[in-house]
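Propose amino acids for all 294 sites.
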């Protein structure tokens, strides 16, 4: 995108132009606007038809989009996350519908998870064998060895739960679909007098838990996601099969790989292990000795 082309398309008295990622912020002195390259996405029209208009107003929509600039009110990130999940649950509630189940799709999800569990189990079995042959472990190797039982517990949990989930989903004739923002993070939520979600370029229609899963991967380590989940389900309760699949996905351990930097490995391993512990804490209230179903 060229500045001269922006001036040509939008007849605005520009005082300043600021580049933010793939967007341009236009400052006329009196007002500010956002310009983005046009992407063919019918989701916005669908949102309008469902009464969900919590996104910045699109002023002009040609080759490039001229969008209202939202001046954000400074808010602590903890509160911002809760405000955002309130809006996400409203998005899912307003766009929710039931669709005939695609058995092949859910069989593929099941097989992908089972294969991933099998692969990770073998991967860590072989990795631990190699580490245990060493006289002196590196700090990152010791960090993994010290926590490896937790990886195996998570894999066993996922193996049991995915079988239960698949038996459950096979009995369904229809599943819920919603509009997914599909790129949730704190930078894509703005609030002043109203709340707004921005950056809809990756939005699509699918089952609701994928928005929650991606948000958890980005924010679960730094924030109390149990409160986030409660706020979400207050407005849009998850169905049993949805919640179970969400729990399986967030409980699956990552594949940790060693690099040439022991320091970087320790930082990354510690981040992932910390998230695994927080995940176990998040899931524990949903499971008891007398029931395996969340």
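Proposal:
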């Amino acid at each position: 995108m060229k500045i001269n082309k922006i001036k040509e398309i939008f007849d605005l008295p520009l005082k300043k132009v600021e580049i933010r990622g793939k967007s341009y912020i236009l400052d006329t002195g009196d007002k500010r606007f956002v310009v983005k390259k046009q992407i063919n996405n019918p989701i916005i029209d669908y949102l309008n038809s469902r009464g969900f208009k919590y996104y910045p107003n699109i002023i002009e929509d040609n080759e490039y989009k001229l969008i209202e600039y939202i001046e954000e009110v400074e808010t602590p990130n903890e509160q911002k996350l809760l405000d955002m999940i309130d809006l996400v649950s409203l998005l899912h509630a307003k766009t929710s519908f039931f669709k005939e189940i695609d058995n092949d799709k859910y069989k593929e999800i099941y097989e992908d998870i089972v294969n991933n569990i099998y692969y990770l189990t073998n991967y860590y079995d072989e990795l631990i064998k190699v580490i245990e042959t060493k006289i002196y472990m590196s700090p990152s190797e010791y960090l993994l060895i010290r926590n490896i039982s937790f990886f195996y517990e998570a894999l066993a949990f996922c193996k049991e739960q995915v079988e239960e989930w698949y038996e459950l989903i096979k009995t369904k004739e229809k599943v819920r679909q919603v509009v997914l923002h599909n790129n949730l993070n704190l930078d894509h939520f703005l609030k002043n007098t109203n709340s707004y979600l921005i950056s809809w370029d990756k939005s699509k229609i699918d089952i609701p838990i994928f928005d929650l899963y991606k948000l958890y991967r980005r924010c679960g380590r730094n924030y109390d996601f149990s409160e986030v989940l409660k706020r979400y389900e207050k407005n849009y309760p998850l169905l049993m099969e949805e919640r179970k699949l969400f729990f399986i996905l967030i409980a699956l351990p990552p594949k940790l790989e060693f690099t040439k930097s022991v320091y970087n490995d320790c930082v990354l391993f510690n981040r992932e292990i910390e998230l695994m512990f927080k995940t176990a804490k998040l899931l524990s209230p949903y499971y008891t000795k007398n029931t395996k179903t969340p």
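The mean pLDDT is 91. DSSP finds nine helices and ten strands in the chain.
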